[in-house]
Request: fold
Amino acid sequence: MSTTATVLVVIGVVVLVALALSLRIVKQYELGVLFRLGRVIGVRKPGLRVIIPIVDVLRRVSLRIVTMPIQSQGIITRDNVSVDVSAVAYFRVVDAVKSVVAIENVYAAIDQIAQTTLRKVVGQHSLDETLSETDRINADIRAILDVTTVEWGVEVTLVELKDIQLPDSMKRAMARQAEAEREKRAKIINAEGESLAASALGEASDTMMAHPLALQLRNLQSLVEIGVDKNTTVVFPAPLMSTIEELGSFLAREGAAATRRAPQVANGAPRPVVLADMADGAPGPSPAGLGEKADGAPVEGGALV
Reply:
């Protein structure tokens, strides 16, 4: 009895070990690739699967999207600028058999091919294109990776440039360029404003020429604005051009009068007596005064000869 019991116990242990070796669980996000004697005989879907111990080997393959960071690469752009670019790639297995049979380690392979592709694509663009056209660079990298990885049963879903490191000298140069660009825009906007203001002032001057009272009203408005600040100085604005014209006319009249008086004084003509001077008790001029001739001789009876 003891021998029979021992045999039964041994058989039971062997059965349990065989069951443990023959039962496999494939998770919902996985597929199982079954090898029998080294040959692929099929794909096992999620659930509890039974295999033949020692004869069969079940390789489980995850179908979830994998996030793979691409380490920073020192790249020289097309315009000979050295930059450090890092990226991130997203991919997933679409053919479990190919991902196991066609390549030994699909993750390491995609990591290496992504680094070389990143270096190749960024090196074909200038620095400005690398900074401004990241979407096109991402699409180019993804297209190249898709062509390579489709034979491995892998689909690259997304590639994004994560970081672009520039040299310090290039950062300073770009800062100066940006500042100059902002100054240029400011000057252009200022010039456009001056142009619009000049046009508006021209229209306003035409309106004031057609309506002279508008200028007077504007002058009164200026006085009101000056008086708001409680200034002690009162300014009476006057039209500049009309003031200049009146001043020129006055100077012309004075010059003409002086020109007419100059020949009479030179010829000895009597100078008229200024009543205002006589009223003040001042003597009249001797050549043309009362009681004397023009040559200085006294006049009889006090009459002019």
Q: What stands out?
A: Residues 168-210 form the longest helix (43 residues). The first strand starts at residue 23 and ends at 26. The mean pLDDT is 78. The chain has nine helices and eight strands.
